[in-house]
């Protein structure tokens, strides 16, 4: 119904998560009718990001720098390393604001069925980091992978490797969220909360 | 928290209608982590569309061609012309599938307070179209602007001009939608439906 270039744009917008055919059409019409400058800027930003953003050489988070700002920050505690699955997890932890160590981003979890092994998660690089002894090296490895079957398996795998390097390993706590009401918490979480109860 | 290029991308994605800070962040992470090819394609499509898509010389709808495919289609009824506010309205009518004439897109409605006058809506071009006499010219002008205050005012303005050119003018019907239940229809629509009742 639309001309070829507009159809192409609508199809391309559908690659965005949560955008279906109607939203894509609405976005295309909005950009072409009301805000061509923003559309041009978006095209430029996308291209720049796709071309230049890679992974930090130390923590593997997304960045266009060789080593990211977090890893370069000398005011952070370089003896703590937190392992997370995605760069968005880093943001979530940073927004909580009480962790001041460094991060290591796996970009996924172990999943033999999808062909994702230790090498894909950068566990060799993590092993090197744990082996470094300059300035005291890493003292504690905090594993914050998701509490899913794959996330737990990944946590166990990493914990075993870290122990052989003589590094203390911990896992973030799982249980009833603060502010949550027991009535609305799922059974799996409640069962875990009982099993992992702490002495008062 | 993210590197500058990623922050730029998140900010640029927020120009899309219905996309807030969280969605923009999710989209940026998705594109950079999972689908860089799609991101590159989207950048290319946006740039092409912004550079090349203009307005059809006859009906003013969005197209990269000089005259759009609808206006060039000789199998359509060139004696009927339907006036709509936006290119998306053309799509909606085409999807309904029972109108086979041509269109004229205003790209808005008369709105003195926003400085939108007849020239901005291409009413000079519409006047020329109505004055053309080749192949019988336009026999009926169907006005399908939105049933808002501005849309109605625009409809009245165009109708008066068209009558001076000796072209029959009609307005699409407004009332209770087919499949709608009276109980849930707003008062304005019901009042209009009563005032515009037809003889059975």
UniProtKB/TrEMBL annotation, chains A, B:
GO terms for biological process: DNA recombination; DNA repair. Residues 79-177 form the Toprim domain. It holds the Pfam family RecR_ZnF. One of its GO terms (molecular function) is DNA binding. CDD domains: TOPRIM_recR. SUPFAM superfamilies: Recombination protein RecR. A zinc finger (C4-type) spans 56-71. Transmembrane segments: none annotated. The keyword Metal-binding applies. Keywords: DNA damage, DNA recombination, DNA repair, Metal-binding, Zinc, Zinc-finger. Gene3D superfamilies: 3.40.1360.10, 6.10.250.240, RecR Domain 1. It comes from the Bacteria. InterPro entries: DNA_Rcmb_RecR, Rcmb_RecR, Rcmb_RecR_Znf, TOPRIM_dom, TOPRIM_RecR. May play a role in DNA repair. It seems to be involved in an RecBC-independent recombinational process of DNA repair. It may act with RecF and RecO. Belongs to the RecR family. This is Recombination protein RecR.
């Amino acid at each position: 119904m639309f001309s070829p270039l507009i159809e192409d744009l609508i199809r391309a917008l559908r690659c965005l998560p949560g955008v279906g055919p109607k939203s894509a059409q609405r976005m295309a019409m909005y950009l072409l009718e009301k805000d061509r400058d923003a559309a041009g800027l978006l095209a430029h930003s996308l291209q720049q990001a796709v071309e230049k953003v890679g992974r930090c050489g130390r923590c593997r988070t997304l960045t266009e720098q060789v080593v990211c700002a977090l890893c370069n920050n000398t005011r952070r505690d370089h003896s703590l390393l937190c392992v997370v699955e995605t760069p968005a997890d880093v943001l979530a932890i940073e927004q909580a604001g009480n962790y001041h160590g460094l991060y290591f981003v796996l970009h996924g979890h172990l999943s033999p069925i999808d062909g994702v092994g230790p090498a894909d998660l950068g566990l060799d690089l993590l092993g090197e980091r744990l082996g470094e002894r300059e300035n005291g090296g890493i003292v504690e490895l905090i594993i914050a992978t998701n509490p899913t079957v794959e996330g737990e398996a990944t946590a166990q795998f990493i914990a075993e490797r870290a122990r052989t390097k003589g590094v203390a390993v911990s896992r973030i706590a799982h249980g009833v969220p603060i502010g949550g009401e027991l009535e609305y918490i799922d059974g799996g979480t409640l069962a875990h909360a009982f099993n992992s109860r702490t002495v008062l």
